[in-house]
């Protein structure tokens, strides 16, 4: 007999013994060993599943990174078409800014005196 069929026969015998023993109350050791076997198999299965999932997620992240890098141009092309922002900003003259601020404040004052809350709209007008 080859070793595989021998192992299969022993496994079948052990399985039959465990099933019979599970029905008899005096067979506690067999239940303990069966429970330990299931627990060990579950732990090993979860460990393998965790490693497989970890590898799968790492491959997925790498594929997403490669897809993103394919969408964006390389550094040389980006540098070639980069805007020169120093040339875009021109500082306005200080006098012009001060004059515009004064003008806006004067306009605001003239609007406020005509539109006071509770007033009639024009100075000197009676209610």
Q: Which shape, going by the Cα principal axes?
A: elongated
H/E series: HHHHH
Strand coverage percent: under 5%
Total DSSP helices: 5
Q: Tell me about the largest β-sheet.
A: none
User: Approximately how much helix is present in the residues?
Assistant: over 70%
What is the terminal-to-terminal distance?
A: 120 Å
Q: Structural class of the helix and strand makeup?
A: mainly alpha
> Could you list the spans in which at least 5 consecutive residues all have pLDDT below 50?
none
What's the Cα radius of gyration? 43 Å
What is the β-strand count?
0
Roughly what is the average pLDDT, rounded to an integer?
77
What report would you give on this structure?
- The chain is mostly helical.
- The chain has a domain at 3-74.
- It is 76% helix and 0% strand.
- It is built from 5 helices and no strands.
- It has helices spanning 3-23, 28-71, 75-80, 85-88, 94-114.
- The longest helix has 44 residues, at 28-71.
- It is elongated, with a radius of gyration of 43 Å.
- The model has no long low-confidence stretch (mean pLDDT 77).
Task: List the main descriptive attributes of the protein structure presented here.
single chain, elongated, mainly alpha, 127 residues
